[in-house]
Structures are given as structure tokens and as C-alpha cells.
Design a protein that fits this description.
Layout (H helix, E strand, L loop, with lengths): L10 H5 L34 E6 L5 H11 L3 E6 L5 H13 L6 E5 L3 H5 L13 H4 L4 H5 L2 E2 L2 E2 L2 E2 L5 E6 H6 L9 H13 L6 E2 L5 H11 L4 E2 L7 E4 L4 H15 L3 E2 L6 H9 L4 E5 L2 H7 L11 E5 L16 E5 L6 H10 L4 H9 L8 H4 L2 H4 L11 H12 L9 H16 L5 H18 L3 E2 L1
Parallel strand pairs: 1-2, 1-3, 8-11, 10-15
Antiparallel strand pairs: 3-14, 4-5, 6-14, 7-12, 7-13, 9-10
Length: 453
């Protein structure tokens, strides 16, 4: 599930990570004297068991926590919703800086992990048996939570990307099949516009993670970073692939073929409901989000379908991911072994995973679910009975190879967002936006003490 739809004000707090004595967030005794957590939203089933505090925001978290606590006599989860996405991250960052106040286990999106890892705020779970659950995840999902042999979180859900489209719009304007390539996408967009139809998609500035994923699909590798070598980072944002993607979407926006609205807003949702957009380039969690926002429950119900994400080179397809959350153990945890047990076991049982995907709360990354007949052959109500998992999302999830994120994802996203705003306003070109973005991120990295290679 993706939640960080708008960028927060704590950019600098997370990004200042080198040269600070305070960034060594926790020795093994950091939380040893902490009182037993009592501000639990949920019921504690076994009062004498070790209690592990958890911050998490999944919509069905109450049921997930109850499932865990009912199944364990030695450890119990004390759950609090400390905010959804970025509001929670701000609170976590405050706790890191204060060296107190963090939970034992925290939910983090995979693209945010490195920014907290570099502050020594997260525990390497490898010594606590993380490899015993590695087999439950794909190569790409595991790469997103790992640094070399270290494992800093356990994956739960992901966002393999695809092309959601309105069958009524396609039918009305003679688009007989969803585009398989991005040039086909642009051609279909031009055809619909020429016939007086709606914009084909949207290039919203507030979803820089989408643009980054599409850059990676084209072959860009924005960052190279290894936590074992904290001082050095590779930044490559002025490469041809990045320029090509920004140019492609900038030209679509300039020519009125796609919209320029921020996503996740009331206006955007109204547009989706009203047929203002022919397609939605999004992730496997999108149906759950859209139905929760009221889309798919009105007159447009039954009009949606999903197809694989268009490719640049169909002979060498590349699948990418948007979003996805994990459970990590914080360095302030009093009992790291118990916390690790929770991180590895929470939302990992069959009842919780099944409830998650059936309610469209998550797209699970657990291979036990991804290979189950019930999940594979499930017919999506949102997609009018289409076997979306089997046809689109599972192949995309299995083919995803993971990504390398920087220690300052939030700052990078903010700067990419600024460039997209300029692109949409006609104030820059895709090539210039890539160069300016590269220069800004390189400069920023150096001010934070990194050596840029």
C-alpha cells in the first residue's frame, strides 16, 4: 500500500545523516529500561507475555494484531496507529533524534528504509533468523529490504505496476486493445484527443515515486548506494533514460494528451469517476484505494480493466513497483528478539493475508499467497470479473528485480516534484529537468557529507 501521497516538512531531519554523533540511534541497551507498553489500541490476550509495541496503519490492522496475539502465548503485540505514512515517519524521526519514544516495531515503506538505516535506527534482522522467511518472498521484494547480508525489514505488501483503463472510453474511441508500448500509449492518447475524448492519463507532480519507477523501467539507475560504505554514493539523474521519460511525459502534458492534476485529491477522484481520464498508471493496490474513495461503486462500476504496464522494449520487458510496506525493528526495542519475532510473524499468517487481499487492502508479497489457487484465480469485482492477479499483477511481481534507494528519498522526491511542476507549466524541458535535478541532488548530497561518485 502506498500512503505518502504528499511530501512532508521533515526533509532535512531525515536527510542529515552523516557526521552526526546522534545518528547512532541505539546500542543493544537503548530500550532496556523502557516501561512495558500499555497504550495499546488492541486487546492483550496473554498478560504475562513479552509485550512488543508496534506502529502501523494498515486498514485491517486490528484484525491482524488479534490474529497474532491469539496465536502466540510468549509475545503480544501492543499496537498504535501513529499516523499514516509520512506523519508517522515524522514522529519516528523525532524519536530517533531524542533517542527515546520509538516503538519496538515500525511500519515503513520500502523506499524509506535506507534513510532510517543510515541513522542506525533499524536493527539487522539477519542474526534473529530473517533468512528463515526469505524463501517466502521474491528476489526483488527481498532486495528492497536488504543491504548485503543485512536484512532491515520484512516485506508485507507491494505495488507491481500496471495500466488500469476504462473499457467504455476505449470502446467509444476505437481503442481495440490496451497499448503494449509507450509509443502506442502516446498514439492512442492522440487518437482519443483528436476525436474530442478525455485526456488519456495524468502526470501529477505529487507522485514522484511513479515517475521514478518509470525512469527505472526505461533503464535509469538513479542511485547506487551500499550501507557498508556510508560515505559514498553514486548519483545518475542526467542520463538518457531519465531525460527520455521526463521528455515523454512532459510532451504528453504539453500537448494536452494527459492531465496535470495532483493525484489522490477530490478533483482527481471525481475525474476518475466521471471518465475524465482514460487510463491510470498505478499499482496493484489501486483497486482497494479507488473503491475506498468511492470509485467502482457507482455508475462507472464494471467499466474498469487492467493490462500489463506498457514497455519501452517489448522484447526485454521491465517490471517496476510503486509502494509497498514492511515491518522493521527499531534500535530502541527493549527485547530485539521478541520484536524480530513480531516483525517476521505479523501479517504473515494465512488469515491475515487472505483478509488483506480479499478486502483489497494489500497486494501480498508472500509467495505462499502468490502461488495459491484462490489468489491466482480470483476474479476481481473491480475489474468486472477479470483474473487480474493471474493475468497481470503476479507476473509483474515475480519479474520485479528490486530497486536501490538513496538515504534521502524524501528530499529527492521533493526536488523531482518541483521539476515536474515546471515541466507541466512549460517552464523547462525533460532534458533540462533531468540535468537540473541531477545537479541539485549532487549538491545536496555533498552538503550532507557524502562523496558523490
Amino acid at each position: 500500500m502506498r500512503t505518502s501521497k504528499n511530501l512532508p516538512a521533515f526533509v532535512t531531519a531525515v536527510a542529515v545523516v552523516l557526521g552526526l554523533s546522534a545518528c547512532s540511534g541505539g546500542d543493544d541497551g537503548a530500550g532496556a529500561s523502557r516501561a512495558k507498553p500499555t497504550n495499546c489500541t488492541n486487546k492483550i490476550v496473554h498478560e504475562d507475555a513479552t509485550r512488543v509495541s508496534v506502529w502501523a496503519w494498515y486498514p485491517n490492522m486490528a484484525k491482524v494484531v488479534d490474529n497474532f496475539n491469539n496465536a502466540h502465548t510468549d509475545v503480544q503485540v501492543c499496537w498504535t496507529n501513529a499516523g499514516q505514512g509520512q506523519p508517522q515517519y515524522e514522529k519516528f524521526q523525532t524519536a530517533i533524534s531524542a533517542k527515546k519514544g520509538a516503538p519496538d516495531v515500525v511500519m515503513l515503506e520500502s523506499d524509506q528504509l535506507v534513510g532510517f538505516e543510515i541513522q542506525d535506527a533499524l536493527v539487522d534482522l539477519a542474526p534473529f533468523g530473517a533468512d528463515t522467511v526469505k524463501k517466502n518472498f521474491s528476489e526483488g521484494a527481498w532486495k528492497d529490504v536488504s543491504q548485503g547480508t543485512a536484512v532491515y525489514a520484512i516485506p508485507v505488501d507491494g505495488g507491481p505496476m500496471a495500466l488500469i483503463y476504462r473499457t467504455d472510453v476505449f470502446r467509444k474511441y476505437g481503442i481495440t486493445a490496451p497499448p503494449k508500448t509507450w509509443p502506442e500509449y502516446a498514439a492512442a492518447a492522440a487518437r482519443v484527443k483528436a476525436a474530442g475524448g478525455p485526456v488519456f492519463g495524468d502526470f501529477g507532480s505529487n507522485v514522484p515515486a511513479v515517475t521514478t519507477a518509470l525512469m527505472m523501467q526505461k533503464g535509469a539507475q538513479p542511485f547506487g548506494y551500499d550501507l557498508s560504505d556510508k560515505q559514498n554514493i553514486t548519483i545518475k539523474l542526467d542520463d538518457q533514460a531519465t531525460k527520455d521519460v521526463l521528455t515523454f511525459w512532459g510532451e504528453l502534458a504539453k500537448n494536452g494528451l494527459v492531465g496535470k492534476e495532483d493525484q489522490f485529491t477530490t478533483d482527481y477522484i471525481s475525474g476518475m469517476v466521471g471518465g475524465k481520464y482514460a487510463t491510470y498508471v498505478s499499482a496493484a493496490w489501486a483497486p482497494g484505494y479507488l473503491t475506498g474513495a468511492g470509485v467502482g461503486g457507482g455508475t462507472e462500476k464494471g467499466t474498469w480493466a487492467v493490462a500489463p504496464l506498457p514497455q519501452w522494449d517489448p522484447a526485454n520487458p521491465v517490471e517496476v513497483n510503486w509502494g509497498g510496506s514492511t515491518f522493521a525493528v527499531t534500535s530502541q526495542a527493549s527485547d530485539k528478539a521478541a520484536a524480530a519475532k513480531v516483525a517476521m510473524g505479523l501479517y504473515a499468517d494465512e488469515p491475515s493475508l487472505t483478509d488483506g487481499w480479499k478486502s483489497q487492502t494489500i497486494f501480498p508479497l508472500n509467495t505462499g499467497v502468490l502461488t495459491s489457487t484462490e489468489f491466482v484465480d480470483a476474479r476481481s469485482e473491480f475489474f468486472n470479473g477479470q483474473t487480474a492477479n493471474r493475468d497481470v499483477y503476479i507476473p509483474a511481481a515475480n519479474a520485479y528485480r528490486g530497486a536501490v534507494y538513496s538515504p534521502f528519498t524524501v528530499y529527492y522526491y521533493a526536488q523531482l516534484q518541483a521539476q515536474i511542476v515546471k515541466l507541466n507549466a512549460g517552464q523547462t524541458t525533460g532534458a533540462q529537468a533531468a540535468t537540473d535535478l541531477h545537479d541539485e541532488i549532487v549538491k545536496y548530497a555533498k552538503t550532507q557529507g557524502f562523496t558523490v561518485r
